[in-house]
Specification:
Layout: E1 2-5, E2 9-14, E3 17-22, H1 33-48, E4 53-58, H2 69-75, H3 80-98, E5 104-108, E6 112-113, H4 115-121, E7 125-128, E8 133-135, H5 146-156, H6 158-167, E9 170-172, H7 173-179, E10 184-185, H8 191-202, H9 207-239, H10 243-254
Parallel strand pairs: 3-4, 4-5, 5-7, 6-8, 7-10
Antiparallel strand pairs: 1-2, 2-3, 8-9
Helix pairs in contact: 1-3, 3-9, 5-6, 5-9
């Protein structure tokens, strides 16, 4: 078994399967700058390894509960250039997961909120426990869910995407399954065994054929994604200079209802 060491993720390879575990259980695996870097490096290691399948899951009771609070505090007052770079980095991580040359399986063991929903549903297969919660909650705290919107529309259609993105509401595993964002709902004690069972099923296929098929599927959306992500990165950076963004972050951290501008 191969084991790579990172600060915020666990990475291991065994029997043709690379397993990446978000490993900040005390923070509900919230997305920090360090986790973004570690997850990107782990995905790159998996893509270049001899493993045929990649499994992504979370340690503890959550899959990924959105952005880390400490990182949220740092966002207020950052320059436009810094905000653009942040958006580009997150877009790059999502694209690396979406375009991974090997089949990916998300084993969603609990809450997957905001960016966590994106990570969970960008995999080729998404398995979730009945208690899993999802939500594109960005608008509730003054963000723009730009980067994930392109992928979501392709998955569920524009009308449903507008519902999820504009309300920012939370939804459960059953609704995620009906929307097509989750492939299977699996009992918690069987989640990882089912993920490995699916991985072994995929490994019965030709590795060359799987790589070629994934490359072909990514090519269908490449030009459109390139255009849409460019716009999304701009909007993500621009919203961070607004009064609503500052109020949204501040009110969230202070655990109070935001006082939005009227424009």
């Amino acid at each position: 078994m191969t084991i790579n060491e990172y600060s915020t993720v666990l990475y291991g390879e065994a029997q043709g399967i690379a397993t990446i575990t978000l490993n900040r259980p005390d923070k509900r695996n919230a997305i920090s700058y360090e986790l973004i870097a570690d997850l990107g490096a782990a995905l790159k290691a998996a893509a270049e390894s001899s493993a045929q399948i990649v499994i992504l899951t979370g340690a503890g009771s959550a899959f990924c509960a959105g952005m880390d609070l400490e990182n949220l505090k740092q966002l207020i007052g950052r320059s436009d250039e810094q905000n653009r770079k942040d958006s580009e980095t997150m877009a790059g991580l999502f694209r690396a997961l979406y375009d991974c040359p090997k089949p990916t399986i998300a084993a969603v063991n609990g809450a997957a909120i905001a960016g966590g929903t994106g990570l969970a549903t960008l995999c080729d297969f998404t398995l979730a426990v009945p208690e899993a919660k999802f939500g594109y909650t960005e608008v509730r705290i003054g963000f723009v869910p730009g980067i994930v919107s392109s992928y979501l529309i392709a998955n569920v259609g524009e009308k449903r995407a507008r519902d999820l993105l504009l309300t920012g509401r939370l939804f459960g595993a059953e609704e995620a399954y009906r929307l097509g964002l989750v492939n299977e709902i699996v009992a918690p004690d069987k989640l990882m065994s089912r993920a490995h069972e699916l991985a072994r099923q995929l490994m019965e296929n030709s590795p060359a054929s799987l790589r070629a098929t994934k490359k072909l599927l990514s090519s269908y959306t490449k030009d459109q994604l390139d255009r849409q992500l460019k716009d999304a990165i701009h909007e993500n950076a621009a919203i961070r200079q607004t009064a609503d963004f500052k109020e949204g972050i501040t009110s969230f951290l202070e655990k109070r209802k935001p006082k939005w501008t009227t424009k």
